[in-house]
Amino acid sequence: MQLTGKAAGHYAGQADPYILKSGGRYYLYVTGHDAIYAYHSDRLLGGWEYYGPVLSVPELSAFWAPSVIALDGKFYMYNSMEGTDARPDAGGHTGAMHVSVADHPLGPFTGTRRILEPFSIDSHIVRNEAGLFLFYSANRYEGERIGTCIYVDKMRDPFTPAGSPVLVVEPTIDEEIYQRDRYRPGQHWHTVEGAFYFREGDWQYVMYSGGCFQQPGYFIGYARAKTDETDLTKIHFEKYPDAHTYRPVLSANAFEEGTGHHSLIRDNGQWYAVYHGRDYAREPGADAFDARNARICALDVCDGVITARRYRDHI
């Protein structure tokens, strides 16, 4: 299940992998310093080939965490980038959510527009009976546990958020601390990011990553709600098993660390999480950013509970 076709000079890792199936073929989009990169395969669990950059804007950088959706014959990619003329947020962060469009899953994605102000990252674009919704992460500087939280907003069209975002998941435990004493002594910065929404039966879920992606303890957890509500801005999601208990679906284990930021796909009746992690034994000099690569595991989803069945391999 190892990704193949690594090209000289292209982005080394496969961070923040987003998987899409279209026309019977699988596509994987990953974070890059100078572009969003893609892989493709005719099989989920093998045969992956490196394609190359599918989105790049010369004046922008830090192409983070894409999600892609097919709408009316077009493919829309949502991801954050830096280098815009938008004003930075209170912490000086300039990453902002953009949308780009293509006629094919492998792009090229063009017509890039900024749709949110900094700081806005880690999209998941979702369509259901009630319309189009955008999950993303943004920073909160007030409260007991300051840091990055997950929000959802309804979209008026693929380029226009309604402008009434609702808080979905916020930090509540120490395992979600990104950096201690970040802005002043005694005030720790927390991070909950990488939202992925899905529905199974009577339950709706928002999975997320918690902590610092550069640290071994980066993990995947989830919040859930048992409801038939289709307007995703009206659902109250609660962390599993509760707001104050650390019980990750995926976390560091005997052979990998930094497990997080994932997407899901349902294939032949089975849910799979495609996530990034780092091997403990990695190339000399590889830092925590570039050493991330895509892995896969099956998920069992039953009556509000998600459990993982691990594969010791890359995708």
Describe the 3D structure.
The termini are close together. This protein is globular. The protein has strands spanning 18-22, 25-30, 36-41, 49-55, 61-71, 74-82, 96-102, 110-114, 121-128, 131-140, 147-157, 160-161, 166-169, 177-184, 187-200, 203-210, 219-226, 238-239, 256-267, 270-279, 293-302, 305-309. Strands 9, 10, 11, 12, 13, 14, 15, 16, 17 and 18 form a 10-stranded mixed beta sheet that branches. A 4-stranded antiparallel beta sheet has the order 1-2-3-4, with no helix packed on it. By secondary structure, it is mostly beta strands.
How big a fraction of the residues is strand? over 45%
Measured distance between first and last alpha carbons: 4 Å
What level of helicity do the residues show? under 10%
Q: pLDDT average, as an integer?
A: 93
Topology pattern, helix = H, strand = E: EEEEEEEEEEEEEEEEEEEEEE
Could you write a compact summary of the structure shown?
The chain is built from no helices and 22 strands.
Q: What brief labels describe this structure?
A:
4-stranded antiparallel sheet, about 0% helix, 10-stranded mixed sheet, mainly beta, about 325 residues, disordered N terminus, about 55% strand, 22 strands
Q: How are the SSEs placed, and which strands pair?
A:
Blueprint lengths: L17 E5 L2 E6 L5 E6 L7 E7 L5 E11 L2 E9 L13 E7 L7 E5 L6 E8 L2 E10 L6 E11 L2 E2 L4 E4 L7 E8 L2 E14 L2 E8 L8 E8 L11 E2 L16 E12 L2 E10 L13 E10 L2 E5 L6
Parallel strand pairs: 11-15
Antiparallel strand pairs: 1-2, 2-3, 3-4, 5-6, 6-7, 7-8, 9-10, 10-11, 11-12, 11-13, 14-15, 15-16, 16-17, 17-18, 19-20, 20-21, 21-22
